[in-house]
């Protein structure tokens, strides 16, 4: 129970420090709102038109494919170190071919759907 009390005490102290900093900021900052300060702007430019903009789903798919292949690269480095260990060679080789097979099927599916076209 003593360890839990230590964790609770650290959380309370951390929350007190953050809350104290936010309270000090609110008390010490100048607060002079004007109509010009309250208008919305983007990068210093006055807004024109409405705030709705259409974005393409394709950009999200590109980001998702990047994450998939970044994860692939993350798994390749530990595999290379385990592959050199005695007794694990053929097992890790088979597991990596299964993993790369799943990635190849996903890449083929993305190519069939036309996701990889850059136009």
Automatic annotation (TrEMBL):
Its membrane topology: Multi-pass membrane protein
EC no.? Answer: 7.1.1.-
Where is it predominantly found?
membrane
Which InterPro entries does this chain map to? NADH_UbQ/plastoQ_OxRdtase_su3, NDAH_ubi_oxred_su3_sf
Q: Which GO terms fall under molecular function for this chain's record? A: NADH dehydrogenase (ubiquinone) activity; quinone binding
Catalyses:
a quinone + NADH + 5 H(+)(in) = a quinol + NAD(+) + 4 H(+)(out)
Q: Which residues form a coiled coil?
A: none
Sequence intervals crossing the membrane = 6-28, 59-80, 92-110
Localization, per the record, is: Cell membrane; Membrane
Write out the function statement from the record.
NDH-1 shuttles electrons from NADH, via FMN and iron-sulfur (Fe-S) centers, to quinones in the respiratory chain.
Q: Provide the protein name.
A: NADH-quinone oxidoreductase subunit
Which taxonomic lineage is given here?
Answer: Bacteria, Bacillati, Actinomycetota, Actinomycetes, Streptosporangiales
